[in-house]
Amino acid sequence: MSTKFFFTRLQYESGDWDVDQRMPSNLLNSLVEYTTLKVDTQERIIPLSSDEIFKSPFCYISGHKLVQFTKKERENFKKYVNNGGFVFADDCNHDIDGLFSKSFVRQMEDIFGSQALKKIPNNHEIYKVFFEFEDGPPTTSQELNGWGDDIVHDYLKAIQINDRIGVLFSNKDYGCEWDYDFRNKRWYKIDNTRFGVNIVMYALTS
To answer: Nearest-5° angle of CA 60, CA 178, CA 198?
Structure first.
């Protein structure tokens, strides 16, 4: 087992899992910059059907297209989350009625039940575990530029297992928001990856 934190991107057979390719290195750079975590700065890509996912402290899944898990993918996803794993799922379409969002939500309902995925309050621990976000999830530029459903989603959804988030689901397209060369971060008035730091720190400490 690695003593360093590592970022796992879940590869799944349906859809397009390989999106926002610079986002992981950018987020990992922020963890190095802001926290005392020991960080492996190389993203790991692990098939959801592989038992290697059970070694991962944090998993990321995203895409634009249909999500239709295979039997083995569904079994692994359920086992990983029920055993204390954390999955951050982010819709690249930033569209509540988009294909990724609707099909991913359907998969969660099939695996965990129709009422499992619920809105989390904007005073949830995830918004204050490291940086403070008083208004809940920060808005992305994708939501403000008329792309997708042209709605600013003022909440995130989650599946909680034993009062702890096991699946965090976003329609806000954070992956695209954080998909730039980390060296360009200095041009941002406020570093927009700070919420990603919160997500990882929550996953590791809650």
So the answer is: 65
* Parallel, antiparallel or unpaired: strands 59-63 and 44-47: unpaired
Proportion of the chain in helix, strand, coil states, percent, rounded to 5: 35, 15, 50
Q: Of 56, 203, 197, nearest to 43 (Cα)?
A: 56
What pLDDT, in 10s, does the model give residues 72-85? 999 999 999 999 99
Q: Of 47, 49, 59, whose CA–CA distance to 6 is shortest? A: 59
pTM of the model: 0.91
Question: What whole-number distance in Å separates Cα of residue 201 and Cα of residue 197?
Answer: 6
Burial of 205 (0-12, 13-18, 19+ CB in 10 A): exposed
Tokens coding 205? 């400490």
| Residue 44: exposure state from Cβ atoms within 10 A (0-12, 13-18, ≥19) | middle
Q: What are the residue ranges of helices labelled H in the chain?
A: 23-34, 71-82, 99-112, 141-144, 174-177, 194-205
For the stretch 22-66, pLDDT in tens is 889 889 999 999 999 999 989 999 999 999 999 999 999 999 889
Burial of 181 (0-12, 13-18, 19+ CB in 10 A): exposed
**Paired tokens of 26:** 């950018």
Q: 141, exposed or middle or buried, with CB in 10 Å at 0-12, 13-18, 19+? A: exposed
Q: Which two tokens stand for residue 41?
A: 């700065």
